[in-house]
Design a protein that fits this description.
β7, α12 and β8 form a beta-alpha-beta unit. The chain is built from 19 helices and twelve strands. The two termini are about 20 Å apart. It has three domains: about 180 residues, Rossmann fold (3-Layer(aba) Sandwich), CATH 3.40.50; about 50 residues; about 180 residues, 3-Layer(aba) Sandwich (Rossmann fold), CATH 3.40.50.2000. It has a six-stranded parallel sheet with strand order 9-8-7-10-11-12, sandwiched between helices. The protein has a four-stranded parallel sheet with strand order 3-4-5-6, sandwiched between helices. The chain has a two-stranded parallel sheet with strand order 1-2.
Length: about 425
């Protein structure tokens, strides 16, 4: 049983399909193709309905048969709640206007009963039965599932960055991660997307979880990321996003937020252009605006000498990203901390040189194929950008290494490792 809440929500709302969506979606596609997994999809969120799950799966080419009910006696509970709502409604109607205004307790119970009834009515009811694996790729494992000892529960841990660097996140995100972590115990199985994330999780939770049940299943870049060699396609994509097609550019593609250290890229670019008196280089910052992105635009405003050579594209369609990557001179990503580092891997799969941080999980992804620097070292970042700008042979070498290294990561492999983890839990 796979929780498709994130994927169904993004599909319904047509929201920015960022990192978590890509992971949930990519792994689910592989699990659905694997007959051994026999995967069904559900959601425990009260704002995700059966129709949401079904519509998402339909777009993937699957039917409602892949939607699974999450409780056996839901119809019985609906009947109980219907009677409770009817009784509370009758009680309120029989009271005087003043009494109804004062009946806070009854009104509160009535509201909660209605909300519960609505939630139950929206639950998946396509198939009845039992399952022995429940995998939540983001939200905390529901107590109803957790309390059933016949079910092995899996939760995916992307990173502990909201815990380690709370200043970079909204309270909602911090609380979601804390809730999921607090919900783990010795019976929980955890799939970490990198060894770095596994280390952080075990250090944070200590003996609360069994280290033998905390496994690493690395991610992969989508097949939509490839080396685009058609210069006309690249030119058309650049024109679409108002980026000069004839001028070499440095690319950074990610959500524009403080943790990605984008102000450091701007400072390094400004220093590079100013010190080396470079006339034929632009900086392209691609991606949707995230939390506290104002600082990025403030940094651009202060970099008056290069302000007109920095291009903000906003959100880039999935179908355009391969061309945007492939046309770049280099990809620069001096992020503060990462659970895995999909953007560098995507860039590598498109065959361009990568400069990224030497922290957290990033060495696991780019070691031997990319350049790594301390994300706080402005001089080092500027120098490596200069080296790639000035040395085409070095760029060509790193491009070949990037393509070779990226082949080590595939979603088929991630899926197989995930299924093997499921099987291990049943031994």
């Amino acid at each position: 049983m796979y929780d498709g809440s994130v994927a169904a929500y993004c599909h319904r709302e047509k929201k920015n399909k960022g990192g978590v969506f890509r992971v949930v979606d990519s792994l689910l596609k592989e699990l659905l193709k694997d007959a051994e997994a026999n995967t069904k999809v559900t959601s425990f969120l009260n704002n995700i309905s059966t129709d949401d799950i079904t519509a998402y799966l339909s777009d993937l080419g699957y039917s409602e048969k892949q939607v699974y009910t999450e409780r056996k006696n839901v119809q019985d509970e609906i009947q109980v709640k219907e009677k409770e709502v009817a009784f509370l409604s009758s009680s309120l109607e029989q009271q005087s206007f003043l009494s109804r205004q004062l009946a806070f307790g009854t009104k509160s119970k009535f509201k909660k009963a209605l909300e519960r009834l609505h939630y139950l009515s929206e639950l998946p009811l396509v198939e009845k039965g039992r399952f022995n694996i429940y995998h939540s790729p983001y939200y905390a494992v529901p107590e109803k599932i957790k309390s059933d000892k016949t079910i092995r529960t899996f939760w995916t841990s992307y990173d502990l960055i909201p815990i380690l660097f709370p200043q970079h996140f909204e309270e909602t995100t911090i609380n979601e991660v804390k809730q999921a972590l607090d919900n783990l115990n010795q019976d929980s199985w955890v799939l970490c997307i990198s060894q770095s994330t596994r280390n952080d999780l075990l250090n944070y939770l200590g003996k609360k979880v069994d280290p033998g049940k905390v496994l690493v299943t690395p991610l992969a870049a989508s097949e939509n990321f490839y080396q685009e060699r058609d210069k006309n396609i690249i030119r058309n994509v650049l024109t679409k996003y108002a980026v000069p097609a004839e001028t070499p550019y440095i690319l950074s593609l990610c959500t524009l937020e403080p943790r990605k250290n984008i102000t450091q890229i701007i400072k390094a670019f400004s220093k590079l252009v100013r010190d080396e008196k470079i006339k034929d280089l632009n900086l392209v910052l691609a991606g949707a605006s995230g939390w506290k992105f104002d600082a990025i635009f403030e940094e651009i405003e202060t970099s008056k000498d290069v302000k007109n050579r920095i291009y903000i594209t906003g959100f880039v369609d999935d179908t355009d990203q391969a061309a945007l990557y492939s046309g770049a001179r280099m990809f620069v990503y001096p992020t503060i901390y990462e659970g895995f580092g999909l953007p560098p891997l995507e860039a590598m799969q498109c065959g361009i040189p990568v400069i990224t941080s030497d922290t957290s999980s990033l060495p696991e992804v780019v070691s031997g194929a990319g350049i790594m620097v301390n994300p706080t070292d402005l001089e080092a970042l500027t120098q490596e950008m200069l080296n790639l700008y000035a040395d085409q042979s070095k760029c060509d070498k790193l491009s070949a290494l990037s393509l070779q290294k990226s082949k080590e990561f595939t979603w088929q492999q991630t899926c197989r490792q995930t299924i093997e983890s499921y099987k291990m839990s049943l031994l």
